[in-house]
């Protein structure tokens, strides 16, 4: 994971997002690129503007860009991260583009990176926004690291894979292999009666072992818990510092109506979560 994208926007825990990006970068000697992020601006604005839209004037966009760039560059400077290095394994950084990029841009630009790092969305349409996360997940084709408000002390030492046998989770595990190979402990967590047809957690753990990943399979009962609640509770019981999960293995619409594990984890995760769709 040598190329990491960090969309930067002033919000209450942007420092946690930058801390997490630097933790991952430190494990792989990555180049971290920041860009200024803002809400999508509709091309056609009707007379009745929906309440959820945030429309910035040109002056506000320039100020937003300046604040975002300053946040990124000051953080990297304080951490001693250079823009260039002769050493192949040294972390470097850069701030790309002198403009404000919209949420939807992250989905396309993110395709050329190994990882996209974003903050966990809040309840309101304030940054970090769910729209940014979903653009990265549905359009990027790359793994997304979702970071909670509290800065993590470590990422990838003890990893829990929420396994349900789905295509999305299989894809996420494949994209996470660089992290899994460096992990000290990997737990493949399966929940009784959760998930569809597919290989068992034990089968995944066995194949991960063939790739040099020290993995163990566990099965837990849901009891009265929802899958999302159970996953987070079990991850906490293992003192995991990273959760790996396929995103929206049920349709997004179904999760909006009935709820789902992805929606619960996006709203409540207290540890970094690596997701892909």
Automatic annotation (TrEMBL):
UniProt xrefs under Gene3D superfamilies: 3.40.50.12370
Residue intervals of the UspA domain: 209-276
InterPro entries tied to this protein:
Universal_stress_UspA (IPR006015), UspA (IPR006016)
- Coiled-coil residue spans: none
The domain of life is Bacteria
The record's comment on protein family reads:
Belongs to the universal stress protein A family.
Q: What is this protein called?
A: Universal stress protein UspA-like protein
């Amino acid at each position: 994971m040598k190329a990491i994208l960090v969309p930067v926007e002033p919000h209450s825990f942007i420092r946690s997002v930058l801390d997490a990006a630097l933790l991952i970068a430190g494990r792989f000697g990555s180049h971290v690129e920041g860009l200024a992020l803002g809400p999508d601006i509709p091309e056609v604005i009707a007379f009745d503007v929906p309440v959820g839209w945030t429309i910035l004037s040109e002056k506000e966009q320039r100020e937003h860009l300046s604040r975002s760039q300053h946040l990124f560059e000051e953080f990297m400077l304080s951490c001693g991260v250079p823009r260039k290095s002769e050493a192949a394994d040294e972390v470097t950084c850069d701030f790309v583009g002198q403009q404000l990029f919209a949420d939807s841009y992250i989905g396309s630009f993110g395709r050329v990176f190994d990882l996209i790092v974003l903050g966990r969305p809040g309840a309101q349409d304030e940054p970090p926004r769910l729209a940014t996360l979903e653009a990265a997940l549905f359009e990027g084709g790359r793994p997304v690291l979702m970071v909670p408000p509290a800065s993590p002390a470590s990422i990838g030492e003890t990893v829990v894979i929420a396994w349900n046998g789905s295509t999305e989770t299989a894809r996420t595990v494949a994209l996470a292999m660089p992290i899994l190979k460096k992990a000290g402990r990997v737990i493949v967590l399966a929940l009784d009666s959760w998930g569809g047809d597919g290989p068992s957690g034990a089968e995944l753990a066995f194949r991960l072992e063939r790739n040099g990943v020290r993995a163990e399979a566990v099965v837990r009962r849901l009891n009265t818990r929802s899958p999302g609640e159970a996953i987070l509770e079990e991850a906490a019981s293992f003192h995991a510092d990273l959760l790996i999960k396929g995103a929206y293995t049920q349709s997004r619409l179904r999760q909006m109506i009935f709820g789902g594990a992805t929606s619960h984890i996006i709203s409540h995760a207290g540890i970094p979560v690596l997701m892909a769709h």
